[in-house]
Design a protein that fits this description.
Elements: H1 15-29, H2 36-43, H3 47-50, H4 58-70, H5 82-99, H6 104-109, H7 114-129, H8 135-155, H9 163-178
Helix pairs in contact: 1-2, 4-7, 5-7, 5-8, 7-8, 8-9
Protein name: TetR/AcrR family transcriptional regulator
Domain HTH tetR-type: 12-72
InterPro entries: Homeodomain-like_sf, HTH-type_TetR-like_transc_reg, HTH_TetR, Repressor_TetR_C, Tet_transcr_reg_TetR-rel_C_sf
């Protein structure tokens, strides 16, 4: 008697599994190719099953992708200098965005929500605790530099990532927003 291998039970559909598959499609084929049908095919489910986790459809999925990629929480000692803590967040955010180029346009056009907003609020607290005159403007400037830098790095995929250029620019940004503060 020949025994057939037992069929594996399907992997349950979860929000995280959907987001991982959506990122693979967006990063590999571009955001324009990310459809609910294509996503369903990648997950081996009917596209309608995705709506259980994202009832408002593609727009809700896009918001979730933005949050998923930008909710960066970096473990740094709370007694570390503020520049060190902010720089660590900037580096981690940059790495995440470079790893997921397919969603950069979403990140630049959608306001941060949920965990992404909380991550930004933590950076704002660090800047406020540092005694900066305008911590909100400082965070806006840092985020603008970060997104612009990633965009430039992604323009030429053959060019090595500009780590040195990024670090020089980050140092200049941190020095500029510090305005003479430590």
């Amino acid at each position: 008697m020949i025994r057939m291998p037992a069929k594996r039970p399907p992997v349950p559909l979860s929000r995280e599994r959907i987001l991982d598959a959506a990122l693979r499609i967006a990063d590999g084929q571009g955001l324009g190719r990310l459809t609910m049908r294509r996503l369903g095919d990648a997950l081996e489910v009917e596209a309608m099953a995705i709506y259980h986790h994202f009832p408002n459809g593609k727009e809700q999925l896009f918001d979730a992708l933005t949050e998923y990629v930008t909710a960066i929480d970096v473990e740094t000692p709370t007694d570390a200098p503020w520049r060190e803590r902010i720089a660590a967040w900037c580096r981690a955010s940059r790495a995440q965005l470079l790893d997921h180029p397919g969603v950069l346009s979403l990140v630049t056009t959608r306001p941060p929500r949920g965990a992404a907003r909380q991550a930004l609020d933590r950076q704002l607290e660090i800047l406020a605790d540092a005694g900066l005159a305008d911590p909100a403007q400082a965070l806006y400037s840092l985020r603008s530099y970060l997104l612009g830098s990633v965009s430039v790095d992604l323009q030429d995929p053959e060019r090595p990532r500009g780590d040195d250029a990024f670090e020089r620019g980050l140092a200049a940004m941190l020095g500029g927003i510090a305005g003479g503060r430590g």
